[in-house]
Amino acid sequence: MPRKQGKKKIVVITGPTAAGKTAAAIEFARRFDGDIVSADSMQVYRYMTIGTAKPTEEERQRAPHHMIDVADPDETFSAARYAAEASGIIDRLLENGGTVFVTGGTGLYIEALLGGLIETPPADPELRRFYRDLAELHEPGYLHEMLEKSDPASAAAIHHNDTTRIIRALEILKHTGVSVIGRRQEHAFSEKRYECLKIGIVRDRSDLFQRINERADAMVRDGLVEETERLLGRGYDPSCPSLTAFSYRHIIEYLKGKLDKDEAVRRLKRDTRKYAKRQITWFKRDRDIVWHEPGEREAAVEKISRFLSRHSRPTRSTVNDSSAHEKAG
User: Among 181, 200, 178, 179, which residue's Cα sits nearest to residue 287?
Assistant: First the structure.
């Protein structure tokens, strides 16, 4: 399908957790005088810095970042809210002649931003109560396993502790007989908001898992336990969706004396690896993603330069990075 002339352009940098998206996006933003708009469902929350692997202050000084620290930990933050707020920032940046790199691993947020959300049946309070009762009767993860058996695509896209989204996926499946992911594929986002180049950062799985393990150890050294204590000290309930994420949930169990510290960290690493696998499953279905290993940065720069230059004004990178083009081309 030919691209529409004049449609606003953005570049998406995505991939699984710990793949190196932040480093890549900062380099691209510096090369193309761009801004970074985060597409991370956890980095939107204030006071949650270490456990969400937010960019450091030094990294934020190297490139402007947006959609970080925009909600309190006990707020509900949906894909619809993300799309509305992020698109407002992106449109303003583009209108001012900027270049935008949407960066993150929350595939649902990226899809909502690019094409809007699908129409779904209204909430069914009785059915929701039924699923919540099931969740209370069984071990953690029961509803996610239930979803995985009937709708593996949706299960791969939803964290196994995100009870609200799991129940909504089960609810849609019950009422329509169709996977929520299937409905998105039918929708196909035919009226896309932006013309988009998607760059995926990929690593060998063993390398990725090693980086995940090392990052978990670094989080604990950098004060994850203390950060979690501060969040609880501010009065945020451990049942808040933001605090049920694995980065904090197991640390809370440690603070309550339910786990020793080593076991809490082991589970943190295990659940992060599982999350990365689900992200990989989600992104595999998107044939528009162009995958690059971290060492292939110049080839990615070439693709970005050509994409931004086509039917638009030359960027500073296009003018000044001829040596990079020669190496990549």
Answer: 200
Q: Where, residue-wise, is CATH 1.10.20.140 in the chain?
A: 125-185
Distance CA(205)–CA(17), nearest Å, equals 12
Q: What are phi and psi of 192, to 5 degrees?
A: -70, 140
Alpha carbons 202 and 100: distance in angstroms, whole number? 21
Q: What is the pLDDT of residues 142-181, one digit of tens each?
A: 899 999 988 888 888 787 778 888 998 898 888 778 777 6
9, 245, 194: which is closest to 83 by C-alpha? 194
Q: Does the pTM exceed 0.85?
A: no
CATH of 125-185, one of 3.40.190.10, 1.10.20.140, 1.10.3720.10, 1.10.600.10: 1.10.20.140
Q: For 23, how many CA atoms within 13 A lie in the half-sphere containing its CB? A: 11
Handedness of CA 20, 26, 32, 38 (dihedral sign): positive
